[in-house]
What we know:
The protein is of the alpha/beta class. The chain has 9 helices and 12 strands.
Amino acid sequence: MKKVMIAGMGGQLGFELARTCADQGMLVAPRENELDITDRESVNAFVSKLQPAVIINCAAYTQVDKAETDKAFAVNRDGPAYLAQAAKSCNALLVHISTDFVFAGDSGRPLRTDDAPAPLSVYGKSKLAGEEAVLQTGCNALIIRTAWLYSSYGNNFVKTMLRLMNERDSLGIVADQIGTPTWANSLARIIWQLIDLDAHGLFHWTDAGVASWYDFAVAIYEEGKAAGLLSRDVEIKPIKTSDYPLPASRPAFSVLDKSSAYALISGKPEHWRSNLHKMLSELRDQV
Length: 287
């Protein structure tokens, strides 16, 4: 079986990749003391010894607002560059995960892979720099941009909302930022499909449909109550981005056009609300 190395296995996508792997390969997930992707020598030594056929980079600095003051470029640009260079040296496929935040989100239509990026935040700029660094190495690369990831594992918007809804009587949620919630489990399955198809280049993938953060929160509340994860009434109020200022700017409309991925894979993505229902049922069964 081919060796598949996953950097960033401790996150929610790494978790979902592990449990959806099936017979795709032998997974190798280096621990933090075994691999530091911000250290070129550490990356080269680990990859050279392992000789993987595929490297999946799930590692990322994703704290959007802290990225305005912290050093996100080491993880989001330099790390992917080192992984890409190491992948090229052993003829491995590098699968790199990127984000809708590379766009300004001011077009009002689904964003294509050939649309010009224009990130608004340090986080978005660092992720775009990571994409560019990977492509510049000339390695065999598969770059997948996604958005609004959540899972039953790890920290994410869904689990934060459930916690707050169990603590507060009302919540104000931004209603003028539009995107697509995406279950990390569904993204993981698509990653395996694309690897199996020997895909390379740049693709977009999210669940189907669109939503504002307010719509997403309302769905979490309704589905959470139905699943027995919430036992109290909560008022969810739509607010504007300007009503809740944060250090980093967000794209107003970052729905991703998935046409190029549709042309390759079998089937279409499920609607985000259907996948939210599945994830919350799973979370309920874990309690």
